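dude i think i finally got it to work??
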Amino acid sequence: MFSKMGFKYLGVLAVGLLLQGNPLQAQQTLTLQEAIKYALENKAEAKTAKLDVENAQYQIDEVRAGALPQINASGTMKYNIIIPEMALEFGGETITAKMGQPWNSTAVVSLNQQLFNQSLFTGLKAARTTREFYQLNAQLTDEQLIENVSNAYYDIFQTQLQLQTIQNNLDNTSKTHKIIDGMVAAGLAKKIDLDRLSVAVNNLESQKKQIQSALQLKENALKFAIGMPMEMGIELPEETFEINPAISLQVNDVENRSEVLLSEKQIALYELNKKAQTASLYPTLSLGTDFGFSGFGQGFPIGGDFMWPKTSSIGLNLSIPIFTGGATKARINQADIDIRKARVVLEDTKLGISLANENAKTQIRNSLLTVDANRRNVKLAEEVLSDTQNNYNNGLATLTDLLDAEKALADAETNLNTSLLDYKLAEVQLIKANGNLRTLINE
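look at this
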């Protein structure tokens, strides 16, 4: 039997193997690229889209099977309790004769091969197009996941920057609080100033807890976006938002967007559906042949008085539709309406993509101006706070001036963080509009 120490060792070993089996669990940080790759492998939408692509191949196999020979075997065995009789005229007299034997049995193998079936041929083309449709749909699903993960990821970064801003403000105010506390003890400052600083510190502590709670919620949202278990811990690397002004100069390629390609493939499917409805007006021709045994006898087919004469036949089956009451024409017209509606949707999709592209470019240009202004404002607020602290220490500024300067710096940093997030979100939208979301995986 294992000792307690042995069980403990096995438990540690099992945890180590789990961590080794999934490298992401062992990592301390989660980059954007890792988050996207994890989502593409683990998120339910991505898995479902891949299964649809796999299932499309099975649909092709099913339709293709209709063009291959269909072979069937059948057999029967019957005992005639009462053998039917037939009346016959013979020499002016009517006599009856039994028609058959007590036991009858058949065993037949038949083959049927389609020679001409326009609906079947059209179905094969539609099945291949369906596979391409699901492949494009899987690609679009991946891009939507990349967009959602990127937005959730940058949202966490912006909250982390807010938390850092609060922490910096809290550190400065706490430092001032300690200084004033010592001055009050020495009789060089008023207690009311110390109380005001205590209130400011408490407010900042409360804000910090609120931001920490919001950060946890956003981390959970990111885990859900990438399909990661909630109990797993994640930590984003320390980095800053990079600004790329040249991205606003990129040319939008609407025709290669996944949404456009998917709509075009949908139209192709509707066109094949129309051809399939039209194909029902064509005649069909198939070859049929069979070979078997038709047995009869007085005794049981096996081991009894029984005969097994052979049977075989071959023939062509031709079916020509003549009149369906207008049902086929109505189905063709309905299929044509589907095509026209899909083309309207395609044009609207292209228009929406162009709108999103222009809006993203405008947002990026505005964000660049706002980021630049906020950076200058942060630098100016830092200088004002430094001067105010010196003046306060020399008795040339009031505590209110100092607290106002600290709040002004915190507000400036918050505005900068917000403008940086707005820029990154607009950047994601522009990359999406240009059909280049997958480049975020390889950055």
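Residues 118-185 form the longest helix (68 residues).
im so relieved honestly
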